[in-house]
Task: inverse folding
């Protein structure tokens, strides 16, 4: 089990310097591989300033080369910040010249007004809020100076009335986000930005005085940024939220009032919850207490769904914006602009009017259905529930699992998943999660105030191959919640924490084969159903094949029965050269497990599982079938885990399966796979495991036909 | 060619300005003609052992490291070249060599609009 991962260190860096935080930082200089992962993610999260500071303070041990690399990375971040600030000064001067009122948002304003050193806050673009009355003037002016809109306006006047703003690309390649409001969709439409121009926080930059938002407005902007971003969100907005909440001396009454008027208390609640989770904060003040206790309205919950639900999208936010508009006239204008926008806009966004209309209707109907669910009291917001609500109610802390957690984790798996208490389960756990050739499994625990274990979640690293590409994935496997702590969102919180960490590691996707009880929970958290894997069976000529019928609905035993058929897999795989020749001769298709000698030895080498191999020749080189026997009800089942045949010869594949049946002493054999290699096996409709998938870095789910999985890829896990 | 957002890595090629004063020899220092001070329009960011500067005219940011950081800090008030050389020599010794190193650097910072000459 991993004690602390690169993700923990990146979070430790991002939280470095926050009052009351003991950051998770390494105790000794990291090895090259871990360091590169940490540095890449520190750059991605734009927290190089904190890393350089932590190294300089001696809190983050680093070699000289590592320190130099960190400084170089930070130097680039600082240089970019200066170029953006120069652009900001030019832009503000241009706007000022035509009497356009603007407020500097986010990066530069936060760097100069919130952090003790501006260099600690990096950014990648500039954000300006412009008063609605000046909006069109500002866009026209900047476009006349050479800036280009990334997307055309849906209809003339839409941006000024309803839009979030415009992203403008300048001739120098830098970006200006010209905001009318903080975010797109219902929350953005609910914000009355006129309230933000009555006051400001001034800061000096390059000899000029600029106006940022007042502290509470700035805080709410940071909350919108942190809470409603996608799951690839950077840690910087969370750090902003924590920094302002703890250090900025916010007027809690004004925060409350703005939240009431703008109907965005849930955004603050979620942002603080995320930040407190990310940095393991336990600091409390008036704003934090209010956020914890805030009771969200139906509007807030429903609006949040459009941003952070599993099916959230820009289009859904736009459709959901209808609720936030009060007058019928505004609703009609809004809907008309979106349903029948200008041709250039449609061409950029959808390709055609028909496709756009169909999409809008589907989204609208989905939205109404969700609204009815909520109105009827069916609270389906497990995945949206701000984490802090759970954390505060339950005093639950989510943290990476450590080696010292292992006994209690095994105890929890015993209580929840029916694992035994004997040493075999401990060895099974170690085999699965510590000895895999794909690397040790990242794991997290939920603990209560006294450190008692409430929940456990781990993901098994897995590697696929697709052509010559290696696809790094993770499979959601062992998870358990202590029975008396169930229905408190612990499973969801553990899983979400894990997902964020896997994203930081650039894992392509998560997959698993959940059972009927857990599949709904996964779907709510963004998993998608790929389909049911095809399973087929063949009765043994000597066995009691009728037992197959009775066994179909019985669970199989975990451990294997002894078998004299074939040879132990560990013996058959002991000689490396024949295995390598076998693997070289395989003809693979689709998305399949990345096979190697190390993988096969690990996968089929755990003694208690008793895998055996039947070979086509004296060694495995000419082809091999891997199997084991297990009991299912009264039947003895031969699990054909893998059939590896050079050139994918169908005839040899079938022959090896038949030989398994002959030598194994089973009533029947089952296998997973495509019909191409049936070998006398008959399909068992509706019996295969359901494969589910969740996007991480890869966002396109492979169809069922694109996967090439064996039973060895899915059983046991 | 489509516009693309520039990354930090792709956008910049900052020019380090090293301050490696080497020799001593106070009596060799010549009186300076100008005194220099930071231009208030200069944008600056600092980190441990590092200062990045960008003058009003834009261009590539300038990076100061090591002794250069101390020199930049001293320039919050008017300084002559010889005063800066003395400061730099505290770190690296030979004042004469430091002075000859510093002069072109100061000239470059002045040309970039990062410093302005004062009387």
Result:
């Amino acid at each position: 089990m991993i004690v602390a991962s690169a993700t923990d260190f990146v979070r430790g860096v991002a939280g470095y310097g926050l009052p009351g935080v003991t950051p998770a930082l390494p105790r000794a200089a990291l090895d090259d591989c871990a360091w590169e992962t940490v540095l890449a993610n520190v750059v991605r999260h734009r927290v190089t300033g904190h890393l350089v500071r932590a190294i300089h303070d001696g809190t983050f041990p680093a070699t000289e080369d590592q320190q130099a690399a960190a400084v170089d990375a930070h130097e680039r971040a600082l240089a970019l910040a200066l170029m953006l600030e120069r652009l900001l000064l030019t832009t503000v001067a241009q706007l000022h010249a035509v009497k356009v009122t603007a407020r500097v948002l986010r990066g530069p304003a936060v760097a100069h007004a919130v952090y003790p050193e501006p260099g600690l806050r990096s950014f990648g673009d500039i954000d300006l809020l412009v008063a609605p009355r000046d909006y069109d003037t500002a866009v026209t002016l900047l476009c006349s100076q050479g800036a280009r809109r990334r997307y055309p306006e849906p209809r003339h006047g839409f941006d000024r009335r309803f839009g979030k703003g415009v992203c403008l690309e300048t001739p120098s390649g830098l970006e200006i986000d010209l905001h009318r409001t903080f975010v797109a969709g219902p929350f953005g439409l609910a914000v009355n930005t006129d309230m933000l121009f009555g006051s400001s926080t001034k800061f000096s930059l390059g000899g000029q005085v600029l106006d940022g938002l007042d502290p509470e407005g700035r805080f709410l902007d940071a909350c919108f940024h942190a809470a409603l971003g996608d799951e690839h969100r950077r840690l910087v907005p969370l750090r902003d939220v924590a920094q302002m909440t703890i250090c900025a001396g916010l007027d809690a009454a004004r925060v409350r009032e703005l939240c009431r008027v703008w109907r965005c208390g849930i955004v603050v609640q979620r942002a603080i919850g995320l930040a407190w989770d990310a940095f393991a904060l336990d600091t409390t003040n008036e704003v934090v207490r209010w956020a914890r206790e805030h009771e969200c309205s139906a509007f807030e919950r429903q609006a949040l769904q459009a941003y952070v639900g599993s099916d959230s999208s820009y289009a859904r936010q736009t459709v959901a914006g209808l609720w936030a508009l009060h007058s019928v006239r505004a609703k009609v204008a809004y809907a008309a602009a979106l349903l029948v926008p200008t041709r250039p806009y449609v061409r950029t966004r959808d390709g055609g009017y028909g496709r756009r209309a169909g999409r809008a209707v589907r989204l609208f109907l989905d939205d109404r259905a969700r609204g009815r669910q909520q109105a009827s009291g069916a609270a389906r917001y497990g995945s949206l529930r701000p984490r802090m609500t759970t954390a505060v109610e339950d005093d639950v802390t989510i943290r990476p699992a450590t080696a010292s957690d292992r006994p209690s984790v095994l105890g929890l798996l015993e209580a929840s998943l029916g694992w035994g208490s004997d040493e075999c389960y401990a060895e099974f756990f170690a085999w699965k999660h510590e000895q895999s050739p794909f690397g040790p499994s990242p794991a997290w625990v939920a603990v209560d105030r006294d450190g008692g274990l409430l929940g456990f979640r781990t993901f098994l690293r897995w590697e696929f191959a697709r052509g010559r590409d290696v696809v790094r994935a993770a499979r959601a496997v062992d998870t358990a919640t202590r029975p008396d702590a169930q229905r408190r969102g612990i499973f969801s919180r553990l899983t979400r924490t894990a997902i964020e960490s896997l994203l930081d590691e650039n894992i392509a996707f998560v997959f698993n084969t959940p059972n009927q009880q857990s599949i709904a929970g996964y779907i709510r958290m963004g998993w998608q159903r790929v389909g049911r894997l095809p399973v087929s069976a063949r009765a043994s000529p000597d066995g009691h094949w009728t037992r197959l019928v009775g066994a179909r609905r019985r669970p199989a035993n975990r451990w294997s029965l002894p078998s004299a058929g074939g040879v132990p897999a560990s013996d058959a795989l002991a000689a490396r050269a024949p295995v390598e020749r076998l693997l070289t001769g395989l003809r693979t298709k689709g998305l399949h497990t990345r096979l190697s000698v190390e993988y096969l030895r690990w996968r089929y080498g755990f003694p208690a599982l008793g895998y055996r191999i039947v070979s086509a020749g004296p060694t495995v080189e000419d082809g091999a079938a891997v199997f084991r026997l297990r009991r299912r009800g009264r039947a003895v089942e031969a699990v054909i885990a893998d059939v590896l045949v050079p050139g994918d010869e169908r005839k040899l594949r079938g022959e090896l399966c038949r030989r398994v049946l002959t030598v194994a002493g089973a009533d029947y054999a089952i296998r997973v796979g495509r019909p191409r290699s049936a070998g006398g096996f008959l399909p068992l409709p509706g019996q295969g495991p359901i494969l589910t998938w969740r996007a991480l870095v890869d966002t396109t789910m492979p169809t069922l036909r694109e996967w090439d999985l064996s039973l060895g890829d899915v059983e046991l896990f | 060619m489509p516009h693309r957002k520039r990354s930090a890595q792709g956008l910049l090629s900052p020019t380090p300005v090293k301050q490696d004063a080497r020799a001593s020899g106070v009596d060799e220092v010549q009186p300076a003609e100008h005194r220099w001070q930071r231009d208030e329009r200069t944008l600056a960011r600092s980190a441990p052992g590092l200062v990045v500067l960008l003058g009003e005219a834009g261009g590539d940011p300038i990076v100061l490291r090591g002794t250069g950081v101390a020199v930049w800090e001293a320039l919050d008030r008017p300084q002559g070249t010889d005063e800066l050389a003395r400061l730099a020599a505290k770190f690296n010794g030979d004042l004469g060599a430091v002075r000859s190193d510093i002069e072109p650097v100061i000239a470059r910072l002045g040309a970039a609009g990062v410093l302005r000459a004062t009387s």
